[in-house]
Amino acid sequence: MAGCFRRWDLRATAKKYVLALMSDLPRKNCWTIAEHAGDATPGKMQHLLERAKWDTMAAMAAVRGFVCERLDDGDAVAILDESGQCKKGTATIGVKRQYVGCAGRVENAINVVYCSFATVAGHALVGARPYLPAEWARDAERRQAAGVPDELEFSTKPELGRQILADLHAEGRLPGWVTGDEVYGRDPRLRAWLESPEVSTAYVLGISTSTRIALTPGKPTDPGLIHLTVTEVKRLVNLATRAWHSLEHHLHWHTWRRRHQARARWFHQRTRLTRR
User: In terms of DSSP H, where are the helices of 22-156?
Assistant: First the structure.
């Protein structure tokens, strides 16, 4: 990861920061981390996180490569989920009153979409994208004051998850299965991307009970004929002794009844599933 930092002192501070995050500190902030690292003040840690220039995406790619090389057993699963952090002020990028899972309610907080690479041997994060609410994306003055990059635009959480998965796919590390809750399952564009011929990845994504599902795209396929019923067998036997019209005419009606009943059953089942 040395190439992610322009200066050696930033690289040294980053190493101390990571070691502190992996330590057993009961509470981790710039003050406690600086004390753990042996610094006299939290200034270096604050500078690293707030003003220093380093390639966060390259660092994330390095971590992703490290994790996948050591955990991938050929049966991995990519798990999408977001995590929030409550905040007191209004200056943190993306902060607003929104639902956060850690609190279980609406709070003044930020949200970040994560992707975990899970195998039997263990799991680790391989990607993250901060969620920038639409009101933040539209407010030029607030963006400038907080230092939001010009190229960063509003994206839904499923789209942020797709971007992380796209990074894995571009590197040839996208697992054969992707999973997530209904935040991601309700987005048809994410599902379409996973099903596309270029990606073709299996997924298990949650959906809400009110989600409408199209059982068949476009015109419904022919449901065929129902199995022979006792009544239809009796009709066919009776044709041997009594027939008011030609045999072809009666067989036409025999087929029509079976097809009509099969189609009626098909529509009935579809209606029941749609109303659930």
Answer: 30-37, 43-50, 56-71, 134-138, 140-146
Q: What letter represents residue 226's amino acid? A: I
Domain count of the chain?
3
CA dihedral 197, 199, 204, 209 (to 10 degrees): -60
Per-residue pLDDT tens for 51-90? 888 998 999 999 999 999 999 998 999 999 999 989 988 8
**Spatial CA neighbour of 134 closest among 126, 143, 125:** 143
Taking only the tens place, the pLDDT of each residue in 136-150 is 999 999 999 988 888
Residue 17 is part of which domain span? Answer: 1-54
Tokens of 76: 């991995």
Rounded distance between C-alpha atoms, residue 92 and residue 42, angstroms: 19
In whole angstroms, give the CA distance from residue 149 to residue 22. 29
Sign of CA dihedral 166, 172, 175, 176: positive
d(CA 26, CA 7): 30
CA distance 125 to 7: 26
Residue located via tokens 């109303």: 275
Note whether 39 and 83 are same-domain residues. no
